[in-house]
């Protein structure tokens, strides 16, 4: 009896020591659409009915996601950001949607999404007010608000951090995690907490974040410009030694929305954002107008291989391997089945740069690899030792999916007299992932 009790205690202790946000959500980076960057806090439904923050905007985007091929690729979240609520809580103290702009209420909107195989995300703020000045969630309202979101059948919740101090945030973010879990409804939980604490240890505890949040904003808001995208890229890769180990299935760093399809990026810059967000295992929330998006931007956002790389089930965040003085960076992400992704990125502003290297210089082990160029769709075989040249446009990328070296593996060829799998495969035994530089 006594031994059993001790064992039980031990198991309980071990469980609490390894407690993670075990809501089963977001085992791969979430994908969808988020209103903020493109539509901000446009309240002028009278003069700008198509673009103001109202249920019509979210219905329009849901229709586009469902009808224009996005949903099938994984873009399933439709996320409301700031400025959705009424300025006052209801008579029971609950948050409520602005009755003019969301006459059918959030629950109806969630049902609209669910009927189309989509999910609804909602926004709130740990503090007295949201960043836009709407009612916030102070510590005493956390349980009530979590229950309200669950009652509304919300699938994801972004918890911003305006108008609160570090001590309140330290209490509020874990409490909201518990409160959401306690509702019994799986709700993906996005925490802006680290962004309010500078994004780096010792102020930010990434172990704790991984245990309480599914994703978190580490850094400032993205704006519709290349400057802003580049600034984010620089910060995330300068701090990759801290950030990359924090990410994994169910817990992601969030460098903020994709602005591909808006006004600030060229096609090359758009490919660069898509490629590096895939390398970073970043959530892919587009903030653009899916009703009027150009076919060029759509092709980039719907690139199947870029999405496969982003959604790789191993969930390892990639890194910068090389930062050349001449303005070329090389990024790498290990993928499942011993595959990997490479991105050659140019910071130059003159002309396409012919960058020469080899896979062995990039720490790949000996062998012949299958290369698939993500944005041209061309394939080729490449030996580790063979020097190659990629031509990288100014502020653009070349992105490769690299398959493991082909290797004859009789185990996979005949099993019980029948051919079971490919004659050549990823060579699990001998394909060692490249070493970090
Ligand atoms: C903050 C967040 C943004 C957005 C706005 C809304 O700035 O970081 O992503 O939610 O608030 O007011």
UniProtKB/TrEMBL annotation:
Its EC number is 3.2.1.-. Residues 1-20 form the signal peptide. Pfam families: Melibiase_2, Melibiase_2_C. One of its GO terms (cellular component) is lysosome. GO terms for biological process: glycolipid catabolic process; glycoside catabolic process; oligosaccharide metabolic process. It is found in: Lysosome. One of its GO terms (molecular function) is alpha-galactosidase activity. Keywords: Disulfide bond, Glycoprotein, Glycosidase, Hydrolase, Lipid metabolism, Lysosome, Signal. It is an enzyme of class 3 (hydrolase). InterPro entries: Aldolase_TIM, GH, Glyco_hydro_27, Glyco_hydro_27/36_CS, Glyco_hydro_b, Melibiase/NAGA_C. Residues 315-396 form the Alpha galactosidase A C-terminal domain. Homodimer. Belongs to the glycosyl hydrolase 27 family. This is Alpha-galactosidase.
